[in-house]
Design brief:
Four Helix Bundle (Hemerythrin (Met), subunit A), Nonspecific Lipid-transfer Protein, Chain A, 2 domains, 4-stranded mixed sheet, globular
């Protein structure tokens, strides 16, 4: 794909945009429901704080991360919910302050991992740049919930290239989440960046292809829009099926978003 800024710079910029969106909220603003059932704006920021803390721990204190991962192995969702309560306990000001601190620390520490080294993660060790791309997915998806809740229109940027790459790399997660066997053949992805650049992933001669705006692709793999509402095209039956199950994260797919839910907003 075409060159872009390093993922750590873009991760910090993405966080700064979201910070500006929530920094001036009053108590009612923090309590605004988001499209994720049962989650307010405060829940979204609390979750991002916890995820950033996990990433920092993985990079800075891998043994401690191993203990955390082992403790949550049998009930990861329960561990996430417990962390949410902790991050919400001090009220919105503390939730925001903790996220800011955790996000900045995670980004800085991942960027400082020596070249060629990997950091532990929930399933397999990852290069720090890939873990930062996963962090971009978290910021993009949960940030979109916040922007939708507050009625803010995002300005698309080419920072999403890292998520576009990550979404193609994690193509099989959607199959696994639905108990399906991923196909052996690779897909070709041809995605148009907000700037007009075209990012290509996968073999040139692949029969199964997905094409369209990279922004829509990121909304798809973060499950923040229904595929029927996006300007993505599939060539091949398998690629068409994938549009309905795509996700860039492991685990249950969740409810996702309904077709037409945001049309006309």
């Amino acid at each position: 794909m075409n060159a872009m800024q390093d993922v750590f710079t873009d991760l910090a910029a993405e966080a700064a945009d979201l910070d500006r969106a929530v920094a001036g909220l009053d108590a009612a603003g923090w309590a605004t429901p988001t499209p994720a059932p049962g989650w307010t704006v405060a829940h979204q920021i609390a979750h991002l704080g916890f995820v950033a803390h996990l990433a920092w721990t993985a990079a800075a204190e891998p043994r401690a991360f191993g203990r955390m991962a082992a403790a949550a192995k049998d009930d990861f969702e329960g561990a996430v919910n417990a962390a949410l309560k902790d991050y919400l306990a001090g009220g919105p000001d503390q939730t925001l302050a903790r996220w800011r601190t955790e996000q900045a620390a995670a980004t800085k520490t991942l960027a400082e991992v020596p070249a060629g080294e990997v950091v532990p993660w929930l399933v397999n060790p990852l290069p720090p740049s890939i873990l930062a791309a996963a962090g971009m997915m978290e910021l993009f998806g949960h940030g979109q919930d916040v922007y939708d809740a507050l009625g803010i229109d995002r300005i698309p940027t080419d920072r999403i290239g890292h998520l576009a790459f990550f979404g193609t790399r994690t193509r099989d997660f959607g199959y696994l989440a639905h108990g399906l066997t991923p196909p052996a053949e690779e897909f070709r992805f041809e995605l148009t960046a907000p700037s007009g650049l075209v990012w290509n992933f996968g073999p040139d001669d692949a029969a199964e292809r997905v094409t369209g705006p990279a922004w829509d692709f990121c909304l798809l793999v973060s499950r923040r829009r229904h595929h029927a509402d996006l300007a993505l095209s599939a060539t091949g039956a398998e690629a068409a099926r994938w549009l309905g199950i795509a996700q860039a994260y492991r685990g249950p797919a969740g409810e996702g978003r309904r077709a037409g839910q945001f049309v006309g907003d």
